[in-house]
Every structure is written in structure tokens, then in C-alpha cells.
Amino acid sequence: MIRRLRRAYRGMRLGTRLALGLGVLSLVVFAVVGTALTTYMRDYLSAQLDTTLAQGQVAQSKSIADYGTLSGKKYYSWYYAVYDVADGKPTLRRPEDPGDLPEDVDDFTSLALAQTTAHTELLRTEQLRGQGEYRLRACEVEPGVVLVSAAPMADIEDTVGQLITIQAVTFGLALLALVVLGRGMLRRGLKPLSDMAHTARDITSHDLTDSDRLPVRHDARGGGPEVEELRTAFNTMLEHIDDSLAVRAEAEQRLRRFVADASHELRTPLMSVRGYADLFQYAAANAPEERDRHLARLRAEAARMGFLLDDLLLLARLDAAEVETPLRLAEADLVELVEQAADAFRVTHGDHPLTVAPGPSALSLRLDPQRVRQVLDNLLTNAAMHTPPGTPVSVAVSLANDTAQVRIADAGPGIPPADRERVFDRFYRVDKARSRDRGGSGLGLAVAQSLIRAHGGRIDLTSEPGATVFTVTVPLAVGALTNP
Ligand code: ATP
Ligand code: MG
């Protein structure tokens, strides 16, 4: 039974539970107040009855002493017994009115006897046979005469009984109102919490693998500062989940795109290799003079595939740079590296006039010379590959705020604003068809950016028709040696 009650209590809503708890507490308070009130009332009424008894006896004593009779001041259903005491023994006088005495006067006689020995007024509560409870008072009227009066206590009990009934009814009603109204109020007060629980449930039913943002927020108002605080925390948590999901979705999408692009990029040279291999086989049998040409093309495609794989491998290693950095750092002169890159550029891209702006004569830094040279070559090659022949290219080394900067600029057509953000993405090419014709895979800038980031620096791009500038910024390592 108790277990079933406990289970039922556990299954109750919080509002009902609190209301019930409040009810039990009120019940205890009502019981204490009721008991105190009833006890006080009973004591007060008893004391009043004693006073009335005493006052009545004073008047009657006077009447007995003066006239020998019990005249006047008689109350309905009260009893009066007069005893003559001789030799310490009370003898009941014949009553003037038979209604003055009850059937059984033993209690009266015993009180009168007690009075004669005590010589003072005595009060006692006795159960008179067939009459109920009575309050008895004995006093000495004059020497040798004792008066015993008895007043019924039924009135007091009636009044106290009524008081208890009234209390029980009013307290009961108050308790009912408290529990019912309290439950309603508590439910209303707790509604924001249950709304929040609904929101949380909605999230559970929402497919989190979806890249969309969570469609739910808890946007109700009110409920007090605590609820407001909880709501804010709840919404902040949702915001956080949203952000994490967005980041994850974005990363997943980028990875998917990367894998798709990489497969696609690898497939193109692979198809060419196959095609040239077939041609080579055909030429070996039918046109031997064509053979070497096909073999050379085959080698070139294989080499292109090799470069692509090298780039991919390098990017993968740079992505996992926290585990093992793919850089071989050494003390190297940045100005010298730029000059070497410029010389190589002049040899390979003679149709693009190159100027090296005057700057520091030497700038010794701690970096990976081969990788930095690779970045410079990438940027310079871009300036030649993606601009018409004859476009001037310039390169400048400078020092600014604890950083070394290399600016590679060309006067080509520039990169449209919409593409500027994305040219550093893997496999991104502004004009896909043309770039591919020139042998570009779209990995050059991605590799350059990853390499410079691995050095703690960054590459910035500004571009407008006639002025496309890539600025490579690397921090001067601690203890860098500079010779201006
Ligand atoms: P890869 O360098 O891998 O051989 P790519 O040169 O096409 O191929 P990125 O170096 O990453 O790839 O360059 C991305 C794209 O940015 C290029 O395809 C080109 O459209 C554009 N771009 C880069 N540099 C310049 C530039 N100096 N002027 C105009 N467009 C440029
Ligand atoms: Mg490039």
C-alpha cells in the first residue's frame, strides 16, 4: 500500500507534488492553531463557570445565613445541596425544592465532607449518574453549614464542540482551496520549465545530421529571474550546439568536396596516361617515328600526376602539423631566396618582365628555405600563368612591425571580388577550363597558404584590374638577424 502510494507520488507532476507538500504543511499548522484555540476556549469557559458558581454561592450563602433558605439566583439545571455539619459529619438538609438535588448525592456529600476538613472553598468536576459532567463547588455559609452547588458542563462541551466543528470545516475548506489554487498557480509558474522540456524533446526528434540550423529556440517571456536565467542558458546551449553542428557540417562538406575534387583531378592525368599508353602501343607496331612523342607525353602526364600527389601529400601533412611538422627549419636569408626565385622566373617566364624592388640587402630568418622558395615560385608562376604575356611583375621585400613581408604584384587583369576569398581553397580556379589548359590544378595557393601558416605567418590578397598583390607576411623569429 505504502509502496503504491510512493509510486503514485513519484509519478505526480512537480506542481501537484509541491501543492500536496504545501497542503500537508498547512494541515500541521492548522492542527496546532486549532488545538491551541480549543484548549484556550475550554479553559476560558471553565474559568468563567467557576466565577459564576462562586458569585451564585456568595448570594445564596447570604440568603441562607440571613433567612435560613436558599432563595433567589437559581439557575436552570443547577443543583444546590445544603449540609449541616455536626462533629465533622455533614448531614443533608431537606431541600426546599426537590429539583434542587439530583438522584445521586454521593459526590455532593463527599465534597461537603472534604470541605469541612479543608475549611476552604473546594472545586471538583464530577460525573453525575445519568446527568453528565458537572462542576461542583463547596463553601461554608456559616459555621456548621456547608453549601454545595453544581453547574452542568454540557454547555462548555457544546460550545467547544461547535468551535471544533467550525474550525474543521473552515480549515478543511481553506486547505482544499490552498491545494487546488496552489496547484494551479504552481503549474502556471512551472509552465516555462515544461515548455523548455518540450523544446528539448523537439530537438531530440530533430535530425542532427541535417546541416540546417536547429529550428527550435525557447522564446517565451516571463517566469521570474530564475526561469529567465535558465532560459538564457538553455538558448545559449542551443546556440552552441548549432555552431558546433554548423562547423562539423562545413568541415564534412569541405572534406567531401576535397575528396571529389582530388579524385577528379587525378582521373584526368590518369586517363591521359592510359590514352598515351594505347597510342604508344599502336605506334610501336605501326608508326615507330611517333613512338617517342607519345612516350614523352606519357612521362609528362605521369609527372603531372606526381606533382599533384606531392601537393596533396604535403597538404595532408600540413593539416596534421600538430602531430609532426613537415617543415625543416634553418637559418636562411629571405632576400637571397627572393633573388633566386626571381632569377628562376626570368629564365622560365621570359615574356613577363620582372623587377625586384630595392629593400634590405639581407634578412636572416628561421624558416624552411625550400618551402618558402616553393611559395615564392607558386606566387610568381601564378603572376605569369594567369596574366597575358608582357604583363609586368614585381617583387619587393620589406620589414614591418616585427614581420618580414614579400609583395608579389602583377599588372594583370586581376581576380574578381567574388573569387578573392576562394582562390586559397583547394582545387579552386577562377576560370576552370583555362587554368586546367595551363596545367594548373588549383592547389598552388592552398599549399602556399598552408606553408606560410605553418611558419606562423599569412598571405593577403588585394586585387583590382592592373594591380594584383599577394603579400606574404612571416614573423621575425626571436633572435632574427637583420642587415638593413
Ligand atoms: P596550380 O598552382 O596548382 O598549378 P592554379 O595556379 O590554377 O594551379 P592556384 O595557384 O591555387 O591554382 O590559383 C588559384 C586560381 O587563382 C587560379 O586558377 C587563378 O584563376 C587565380 N589566380 C591566382 N593568381 C592569380 C594572379 N596573379 N592573377 C590572376 N588570377 C590569379
Ligand atoms: Mg598556381
Automatic annotation (TrEMBL):
Domain Histidine kinase: 261-478
PROSITE patterns per record: HAMP, HIS_KIN
Stretches assigned to the HAMP domain: 187-246
Catalytic activity of the protein: ATP + protein L-histidine = ADP + protein N-phospho-L-histidine
Matching Pfam families: HAMP (PF00672), HATPase_c (PF02518), HisKA (PF00512)
EC number: 2.7.13.3
GO MF term set: kinase activity
Compartments, as annotated in UniProt: Cell membrane
Protein keywords: Kinase, Membrane, Phosphoprotein, Transferase, Transmembrane, Transmembrane helix, Two-component regulatory system
PANTHER family reported for this sequence: SENSOR HISTIDINE KINASE TRCS, SENSOR HISTIDINE KINASE YKOH
Protein name in UniProt: histidine kinase
Organism: Streptomyces lanatus
